[in-house]
Amino acid sequence: MNNYHSLVLDQKESTKHGEHSFPVQKYITTLSADCPVVTTHWHEEAELTMLIEGDCTYQIDLKEYHIQAGDLVFIPPLILHSIYNKLNNEILSETFVFHLNFLGANTTDICSTQYLTPIMNLEFSIPFIISPEHKAYCSLKDIYYQISNLYAEKSYGYELAIKGLLLQAIFLLLQTREKTNSPNVSNKSDNLRSVLDYIELNYAKNLTISELADICNFSDYHFMRFFKKHMNMTCIEYINNLRLEKSIELFKQGNTSIVDVSLSVGFNNLSYFHRAFKKKYHMTPLSYIKLTHP
């Protein structure tokens, strides 16, 4: 099994990370001028990332953080997050995505009830960014490298060691836990998650701004400003981008009718689909089909 994956994520992620009995997966993410963004998304798992090369901007729970090479990033479960390569430099990061149930969050002992479950329920927050100035940085960096080496070598019992190291990492992060976000920020996150969920379920339909604004009880104007501010793109750009990603999935599954795929993902204008596809992927749909189905 290939243990190194590209971390390209959709809004509410449904990807299975790792195996059922060992829900830990390593990902390699690269961003460049041609592919500068990992769009806003969230998932049930937590993730621990080290930025290997470059500088980038993380948006976590609607707040922006500048990240430099060497920094560690911890994302709790269910938190909205995205990555932006605003400087157009080469970005390389390594991420471990893991479910807190693997660490015992679904049990009834004190570790679960007092520490892990509150993290999953967002009852308190722990630092998202661990830079060299953070007092736990050196210890967490050492733990991260141990996890990475164990995952690569897979010596007998490595799963036990990784589980123990992840628990140590959580322990260190908890020592500098912070207050939870204000209700105002939480409400904004909930609104954005609700909109992204709705788009994910209805992207193939003729979605309107008014329809999406109603989900948040916003005016059309307020909604468009809200979406652009927190997604770094307009709502229409986001929907079209999602539709194009869905079209790629259909082509990969063997659907070779460009007209059918275009209609299936919500593009009713075939010429517009061609132009949008070429702009995003630097090739026409037909060229992509020939490339992937020789």
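^ that was protein a. below is b, sequence first then the tokens
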Amino acid sequence: MKKPHQIWALLTPEMHKKLKEYAVQNKIASTRAKMIMYILYNFHPDQLLEDYTFQSKVGKMVNIKVSDAELEYIKSLAQRYNVTISRLLRNLVYTYFHSMEENKMFYAK
């Protein structure tokens, strides 16, 4: 059996917490790694937002085990956005929750 690849994402404490809360609330696989993979495959923004609140000294680490095909897909996305894999994952999570907040405000009006 082939050993899976491991990728790492360093997130802000706020995004780290939101991943777990959102997964639990919506009955999605509640591990942060699976929630990130869910976002990767189900959220396709035209443009990534940069999480300017991120500081590596207080960042929370998420380890994700991926297959060859998943790794290639993630690498292609990182190349498309011209960022490292960790930055891609961090900004994708940030963009996902930011867009959800914007939608809440839009529908509240």
